[in-house]
Write a structure and sequence with these properties.
Blueprint: E1 3-6, E2 19-24, E3 27-32, E4 36-48, H1 62-66, E5 68-81, E6 84-88, H2 91-104, E7 109-113, H3 116-123, E8 131-136, E9 139-145, E10 148-152, H4 153-157, H5 161-167, H6 193-217, H7 227-239, H8 245-252, H9 259-268, E11 274-276, E12 285-293, H10 296-303, E13 305-307, E14 312-313, E15 326-339, E16 353-355, E17 358-360, E18 363-375, H11 376-385, E19 386-403, H12 406-421, H13 429-446, E20 454-458, E21 461-465, H14 469-479, H15 490-511, E22 515-519, E23 522-526, H16 532-551, E24 573-586, E25 589-593, E26 599-603, E27 625-626, H17 628-631, E28 633-639, E29 645-647, E30 655-657, E31 662-668, E32 670-671, H18 676-686, H19 694-701
Parallel strand pairs: 1-6, 4-7, 7-10
Antiparallel strand pairs: 2-3, 4-5, 5-6, 8-9, 9-10, 11-22, 12-23, 12-24, 13-19, 14-19, 15-18, 15-19, 16-18, 17-18, 20-21, 22-23, 24-25, 25-26, 27-32, 28-31, 29-30
Length: 702
């Protein structure tokens, strides 16, 4: 049973606090072991240049709000110690509460905040943090104030509160619809029981969710900071065995020696391929099929070889090309580059230099001159996708290949097996959810950058110190001391995405004109007569059987069965639905009609249920504006220079605010759009829809 207390009735003296004797190298501390959580609710106000009255959001024109000063205020906060919930109204009250809590519990205390970056912007009005750790400005992972350490539970779960409560089947759920965010509230506004219940439930979702983590790890301080950290902790335990010692030392030697070597790896790194085929963009298509690669990144981690030695500069020769004994990084330039496919491969952002170019929604259709650095996998794709002249190799570096650690690969297969066999079995839900989360995080763990720019928060301002030679050597020196925590290298992650893109592009190249849209591991294409997917899946099965024999494991590890006895092979193209109608306007923007004649929509940053504003698929078009009600999208403005202002001036809940920092949440519309440049490319390409030869296309279009 949970208890709610206004801080005026605070029973802190009655709480029996739990402590834990935390030991670490050369040090031991007594730390608090209670689950503490914090959350706030805020109001946003707008002061127009022609007015002296602060207003709530009233749905006026975009221009009107551009002429407004923006304000934000915390009007209620909640703090929990286990399932005891305390609440107050001002941030000054919260600071006093922490000082009182310090009297009763003087040991180190960990406080979780869901989406800490939001609360942090308000807390700096009253707390002067001693230390803030962040990898990006305005996104603190944790911060310390006295004996308090504030952590972000969103980084730990990677889920909203509503999804967290639902997926982990918590005793409480996030309440929806009980709090109108457009109402101006102040710390003096009387809150209804429904409004307070909404606030309390948020904090209780966090408590019951974190209780599961505490039961898993034993103590609050032992819970990792991030979801990736959870997986890393498990992998480290499995890899810290004598049989993996040589492998871990080998990985340690792959840490880049110079900032130039590290920058070259970063230049080669590319994410998933997400793009629409220009020839079919902004057109309603009939009979579209969708195929999805089952666990694409885990597949290539299990099957492929990776660069296992330091990249050495050398002279290119035939021995290094089309040979899986080697990986290489090639830096080169070409002239008269021309795409020879309907789908466009090269991202403009990866070009170190480019002149006289034409772009297909961010990807290079043609260029007079291009310079770039690619992995061997990407270089092979580049050659298949483009014609060019005057190739000039500037730099060429080689590494010897080998498979990833058998221990690591077997763990991936264990997670994939659990995810498959335990799905839908109620009593196995916790292990199923853990395995699903972990297998999806294995890749993220491999591309975590510990050698990055330095982000600092000083004097209420975020500062960024770019990586330089001094900071680089300091950071790699630290990394080289972490043998017990080493089980991979950043260059492995670079090749993971390269292999996964190549697998996707095998399908794109086979279907080319018929491809409508792609996103990382999926292809949506016009229904056509093709045996590509069948032959691809057979080849994956052959390779997996060979790899299983090599690892000395049963071949079924790559093809576990679900609770109904249906096999699910890792890495094959699976059926992912069929659509009566489909339309895309570009990356992360598409709409389709399923076989039950229901309309669905995916648009980055817009809720899926916004599709209810559309009458049919033809309404999904350039210029369509999703209104505030349907888009349910908030424009968040960080403010660091708020001036003193009176909220609700002349009303019973008038409040004098002197805060400088806050986040103004402004409801906003969302417009579907195609840029003029992209529209010109679509017109040009679609005028050649009848040209099916890629070579004809290259000459006639470009």
């Amino acid at each position: 049973m949970s208890y709610m207390y206004n801080i005026r009735d605070s029973p802190l003296s009655e709480i029996v606090f739990q402590t834990y004797y935390f030991k670490k190298k050369n040090r031991a501390d007594i730390v608090n072991d209670d689950i503490m959580c914090f959350d706030i609710e805020t109001s946003s106000g707008f002061l127009h240049k022609d007015s002296n009255t602060l207003e709530p959001y009233l749905g006026k024109s975009k221009k009107y709000y551009e002429d407004c000063k923006k304000f934000a205020i915390c009007y209620v906060w909640q703090f929990s110690i286990n399932d005891n919930v305390f609440w107050g109204r001002t941030l000054e009250d919260f600071k006093e509460f922490l000082q009182e809590l310090e009297y009763y519990e003087p040991h180190k205390k960990i406080i979780y905040i869901h989406n800490f970056s939001f609360e942090f912007q308000f807390l700096i009005n009253v707390l002067q943090f001693d230390y803030v750790f962040a990898r990006q400005a305005r996104k603190p992972l944790f911060a310390e104030w006295g004996t308090y350490q504030f952590r972000c539970s969103y980084f730990l779960t990677n889920m909203s509160l509503a999804v967290w409560a639902e997926q982990r089947k918590l005793r409480v759920k996030k309440l929806v619809g009980n709090l109108d965010y457009t109402v101006l509230r102040t710390p003096k506004t009387v809150l209804t029981d429904k409004e307070l219940a909404y606030c309390f439930n948020d904090i209780l979702v966090m408590y019951f969710g974190l209780l599961q983590y505490k039961e898993k790890y034993g103590h609050i301080i032992d819970i990792p900071f991030t979801q990736t950290g959870e997986v890393r902790k498990e992998v480290i335990e499995r890899m810290n065995v004598s049989s993996e010692y040589k492998y871990r030392k080998r990985c340690l030697k792959l840490i880049p020696e110079t900032i130039e070597d590290y920058s070259l790896l970063c230049d080669c790194f590319m994410g998933g391929y997400t793009h629409s085929n220009a020839v079919h963009t902004d057109i309603v298509l009939d009979n579209i099929c969708s195929k999805d690669i089952s666990s694409s990144y885990p597949t290539v981690m299990c099957l492929e070889k990776y660069p296992m030695t330091y990249f050495e500069e050398t002279i290119p020769c035939d021995d290094y090309f089309n040979n899986d004994n080697y990986s290489y990084i090639i830096t080169f330039d070409v002239e008269h580059l021309r795409s020879k496919r309907w789908n466009t491969w090269l991202s403009f952002s990866k070009c170190a230099k480019i002149k006289g170019y034409s772009l297909d929604n961010g990807r290079v259709l043609k260029a007079d001159f291009v310079q770039l650095s690619l992995t061997n996998i990407d270089y092979e794709m580049f050659q298949l996708c483009y014609d060019f002249e005057n190739l000039n190799i500037i730099d060429f570096r080689v590494s010897s290949n080998d498979y990833l650690s058998p221990t690591f690969v077997k763990y991936i297969l264990e997670l994939y097996g659990n995810k498959t066999t335990l799905k839908g079995i109620e009593e196995q839900e916790p292990l199923y959810m853990k395995s699903k989360q972990y297998v999806n995080s294995m890749y993220g763990m491999m591309v975590t950058k510990n050698i990055t720019d330095t982000i600092e928060f000083e004097e209420d301002r975020w500062k960024k110190e770019l990586l330089n030679e001094n900071s680089f050597y300091t950071k790699i020196s630290s990394e080289k001391k972490k043998l017990s925590k080493t089980f991979g290298a950043f260059q492995f992650g670079v090749w993971v995405t390269a292999y996964a893109r190549r697998n996707l592009w095998q399908g794109i190249l086979a279907l080319d004109y018929n491809v409508a849209y792609c996103d990382t591991d999926s292809i949506k294409y016009i229904d056509c007569d093709t045996d590509f997917f069948e032959s691809y899946n057979k080849e994956i099965e052959r390779r997996e059987n060979m790899r299983a024999d090599m690892l000395g494991i049963h071949r079924d590890k790559f093809c576990p069965m679900d609770k109904n006895g249906i096999p699910h092979r890792l890495g094959i193209f699976d059926d992912d639905g069929q659509y009566k109608k489909f339309k895309t306007l570009g990356a992360k923007k598409y709409c389709y009609v399923d076989n039950d004649n229901k309309l669905h929509m995916t648009v980055s940053g817009v809720r899926k249920n916004a599709v209810s504003q559309l009458h049919d698929i033809d309404d999904f078009k350039d210029g369509t504006v999703f209104d505030v009600e349907h888009a349910q999208k908030l424009l968040m403005s960080y403010i660091d220079d708020m001036t003193p202002i009176v909220w609700n001036k002349g009303q019973y809940d008038e409040f004098h605010s002197k805060y400088q920092h806050g986040i103004c949440a402004q409801p906003t519309t969302y417009s579907l759009g195609i840029t003029d440049d992209y529209d010109s490319i679509l017109t040009m390409v679609q005028n050649k829809r009848g040209v099916t030869s890629i070579f004809e296309r290259e000459t006639e279009i470009l």
